[in-house]
Specification:
Blueprint (H helix, E strand, L loop, with lengths): L13 H4 L53 H8 L10 H24 L1
The structure holds zinc ion.
C-alpha cells in the first residue's frame, strides 16, 4: 500500500467540536438547594447526597423496577415470553378433548365390525 492511498489522519470537523448548548436554566438552579439522595452509604455512616430524582433517590439508588402499572403494560408483560402457545392451558385442554373424541370414534368403529 502506497502512502497516497492511506487514510489521512482523523481530524475533527468544526461541527464536532462545537460545544453542547447549555440548558435555559443554566446558572439559575441553586445546586446546594436541589433535593439530594438520602440513601445510606455502605462505607461511611452518612447519606449519598447525589442529586435526587423525582423519587427522592439518585440515579444509582433509584431502586428496582416495580413492574408494569397500566393494564396494557401488564398484558404485554404476560405475553413477553410466549412463543407459540403450544403449552397454554387452552391448547393442552383442546388436545385432551381431541384425544378423547378420537378414542371414542375408534371404539365406536370397533363395535361396528
Ligand atoms: Zn444515591
Amino acid at each position: 500500500m502506497s502512502k497516497e492511498t492511506a487514510n489521512p489522519p482523523y481530524e475533527r470537523s468544526q461541527k464536532e467540536t462545537k460545544r453542547v448548548k447549555k440548558p435555559a436554566n443554566f446558572g439559575k438552579i441553586h445546586l446546594v438547594k436541589t433535593p439530594r439522595c438520602g440513601a445510606k452509604r455502605r462505607r461511611r455512616e452518612e447519606l449519598c447526597k447525589a442529586p435526587a430524582m423525582a423519587n427522592g433517590r439518585c440515579r444509582i439508588h433509584g431502586g428496582t423496577s416495580t413492574g408494569a402499572r397500566t393494564e396494557e403494560g401488564k398484558a404485554r408483560a404476560r405475553q413477553g415470553n410466549l412463543k407459540h402457545g403450544y403449552y397454554t392451558q387452552e391448547a393442552i385442554e383442546q388436545r385432551r378433548q381431541d384425544r378423547k373424541l378420537l378414542k371414542q370414534l375408534r371404539d365406536d368403529l370397533k363395535g361396528l365390525f
